[in-house]
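Notes from the 1:1 (GR / supervisor)

We went over the backlog. Supervisor wanted to see one worked example end to end before approving the batch request, so GR pasted a single chain during the call. The sequence is below; no edits were made to it. Supervisor asked that the structure be written out right there so they could see what the output format looks like.
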Amino acid sequence: MKANHQFVILFRGLSPGKHDFTFDVDNNFFNDFEGSEISKGKVLVNIRLNKTANLLELDFNLKGKVIVTCDRCLDEFEMAVKYLTKLFVKFGDIAEEEEDDEIIILSHADGELDIKQYIYEYIHLSLPYKRVHPDKQGQSTCNKEMLKKLDEYTIREPKVSPLNDLKNLMNKN
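Structure output shown during the call:
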C-alpha cells in the first residue's frame, strides 16, 4: 500500500466535540492495494469524529458503487455498497497493538490518524459473501455464453427415488 495523506485525519488541533469529514474513494484508491477484489469504484465516506480528552469516536458511513467480479460468470459488474460502523481510538502512554477490530490505541504524542486501510476494509466488509449479477424480472443478467458452458459441463446425479431401493429390498426377500 502506498502512503497517501489524502486519507489522514489531523485531530491534534481539533477542539473537543463533533467534527465532520468527507472522503472520496475512486479507482486510484483501489489501485494502491495489491490483489484487491475490487477493481474500480466510487464511494463517498462520511465520518463524524467525536473528540474527548482520552478518546476519539469515529462514525463511518460509506455509500457508493464498486466493480467486482461475478462468482458465477466471471464478468465484472457494478455492485452497490453501504456500510455503517464505529471505530474508537484510545490514547495511552505507549503505542500498543490494536486491542480488537473496533479499538486502536495511539500514543499521546500522535496527532493524526491514517484511515485509508480502515476504509478499504470497511468497503470489503460491505460486500456480500456471494457476488453475482442481479436478476432482472426473474432472469439472470450473467453472461449468457458462460451460463451455457456451465450448464454443459455440470455433472448431474441421476434422480433415484429412495422408494425404488425399498422395492428392491422387498423383492429380494
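Supervisor's comment: The helical segments are 27-31, 116-125, 144-153, 162-172.
Batch request approved.
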